[in-house]
Amino acid sequence: MILSTTRAHLSAALESVRKRDERLGFVPTMGFLHEGHLSLVDLAREKSDFTTVSIFVNPLQFGAGEDLDHYPRDLERDLSLLRERGVDLVFSPEVSEMYPGGNPLVTVDPGPMARRLCGEFREGHFAGVLTVVARFFGLFRPQVACFGQKDFQQAVLIRRMVQDLEMRVEIAVGPIVREADGLAMSSRNVYLSTEERADASGLRRGLEAVQEAFGQGETDQAALRAVLEDAVAKHSLLRLQYAEVVEPDSLEPARPVRHGSVVVLAAHCGPTRLIDNHILSE
After folding, report:
1. Looking at residue 253, what DSSP letter applies?
2. Percent of the chain with pLDDT over 70
């Protein structure tokens, strides 16, 4: 497995791939990997000849008071996991290497879909995400890039950026990978105390309650949101930040709710912010 830490080394390492006309797969991460990330690596390997991963904690997507300085990191463990999973190349740059001139003057405006849901509470977050993803696409020039369903709004925005800016990258979205109790895997789960960890699984139970109500014929947005809120309220350490049922492409409220609509939520469990979602099926 090749480890690149500079843009120049990355470019040289990828040149032979391009000469062989191999299909390049790319998985962007912020490290501290778990099985959710590794499932995306597996997806990229299925869809490509040469699999690449980035490990970079992107400062542009963290707002004031967020956990940039304390975001969990363990590069050696990450590299070992990726080597075992058959990754061909890892790019792990310093901030000064990724943004050699400081914060970029030209950034990606994610548009109105980024001002809803998570964007309402994390100003500038999605501009930072799309800007770094666009930069990675320029550096790697992948044929396929893999993202996780857990970050549903992010995946929708990236797919729309690729479409609107003619980036010619296939965007593949892998399903949510969960812990045994249903909690969506996240690098931030390590912040949870034992008591918080027990209550955090209530988010999944809330999503299941909505699915059950929808399966019984409920299609009213407000009624389904009330079902979710009631289920989550049984877990005293959970505080919903938002909960909504949206259309999968526009992220607008689904009225009426239908097969394929997506239940999206964010909640705090103690000081830790968690997100989750579920695609409704008949």
Report:
1. B
2. 100
| Summary mean pLDDT of the chain | 97
- For residue 182, what are its two tokens? 């249903």
Helices (H) and strands (E) in the chain, counts: 10, 9
Which of these three, 174, 206, 235, is where a domain ends? 174
> Length of the chain in residues, anyone?
282
Residues 39, 147, 176, 123, CA torsion sign: positive
Check: CB of residue 10 under 8 Å from CB of residue 139.
yes
Per-residue pLDDT tens digits for 205-239? 999 999 999 999 999 999 999 999 999 999 999 99
For residue 232 the two structure tokens come to 């989550």
Q: How many whole angstroms separate alpha carbon 23 and alpha carbon 77?
A: 27
Amino acid, res. 7? R
Q: Which residue matches tokens 């930069």?
A: 135
Which amino acid makes up residue 239?
A: R
Which string of b and e fits 68-91 if b means at least 16 CB within 10 Å?
eeebeeeeeebbebbeebebbbbb
Query: Among the three residues 174, 206, 236, which one is the final residue of a domain in this structure?
Result: 174
Catalytic site residue from 9, 34, 37, 268: 37
Inside any domain, residue 33: yes
Catalytic annotation present for 9: no
User: Which three-class secondary structure state does DSSP give residue 244?
Assistant: strand
Give mean pLDDT, residues 7-12.
Answer: 97
99, 127, 139, 261 from 103: Cα distances, Å: 6, 12, 17, 37
